[in-house]
């Protein structure tokens, strides 16, 4: 049985939409990634900043794993979002779940839940029509 999932993601939050016939299930995952602040102990050579960046990167891996956990049994995924998070998650998903079909990765600004649902439905309808 196919399970289609659409995802809007940035470094702060993910909105996961699972299509269920004529309904949808919406889940949220917060990243709790610290804001870009100056790390105490930062030196001119960037040592403190490097530590902070590694810590944030590790935290993002946990965040992306938590998002993937909300997409159990997905057969196809649409990934949307601003900036880099969508691309980072795309790579993370390809590495950890290579059997999931990634329908598209596209840029999208902040959206309401209703806008996300509509975009996910439209994309999967187009995908089914062309495949």
Order of helices and strands: EEEHEHEH
CATH fold label: Nucleotidyltransferase, domain 5
Largest sheet: 5 strands, mixed
First-to-last CA distance: 17 Å
Account of the protein in words:
This protein is of the alpha/beta class and 131 residues long. The protein has one domain: Nucleotidyltransferase, domain 5 (2-Layer Sandwich), CATH 3.30.420.60. 40% of the residues lie in helices and 27% in strands. The protein contains three helices and five strands. It has helices spanning 47-69, 85-96, 113-130; strands spanning 4-9, 13-20, 23-30, 76-81, 101-107. It has a five-stranded mixed beta sheet with strand order 3-2-1-4-5, sandwiched between helices. Strand 1 and strand 2 (13-20) form a beta hairpin. The longest helix is centred in the middle third of the chain and has 23 residues, at 47-69.
Keywords:
single chain, Nucleotidyltransferase, domain 5, five-stranded mixed β-sheet, alpha/beta, 40% helix, 131 residues, 5 strands, 3 helices
Topology:
Elements: E1 4-9, E2 13-20, E3 23-30, H1 47-69, E4 76-81, H2 85-96, E5 101-107, H3 113-130
Parallel strand pairs: 1-4, 4-5
Antiparallel strand pairs: 1-2, 2-3
Summarize the structure.
The chain has 131 residues and is of the alpha/beta class. Helix content is 40%, strand content 27%.
């Amino acid at each position: 049985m196919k399970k289609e999932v659409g995802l809007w993601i940035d470094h702060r939050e993910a909105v996961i939409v699972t299509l269920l016939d004529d309904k949808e299930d919406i889940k949220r995952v917060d990243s709790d990634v610290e804001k870009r602040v100056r790390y105490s102990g930062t030196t001119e050579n960037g040592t403190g900043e490097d530590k902070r960046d590694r810590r944030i990167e590790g935290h993002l891996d946990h965040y992306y794993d938590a998002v993937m956990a909300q997409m159990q049994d997905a057969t196809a995924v649409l990934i949307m979002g601003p900036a880099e998070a969508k691309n980072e998650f795309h790579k993370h998903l390809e590495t950890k779940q290579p059997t999931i079909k990634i329908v598209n990765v596209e840029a999208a600004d902040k959206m309401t839940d209703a806008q996300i649902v509509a975009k996910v439905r439209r994309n999967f309808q187009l995908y089914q029509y062309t495949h």
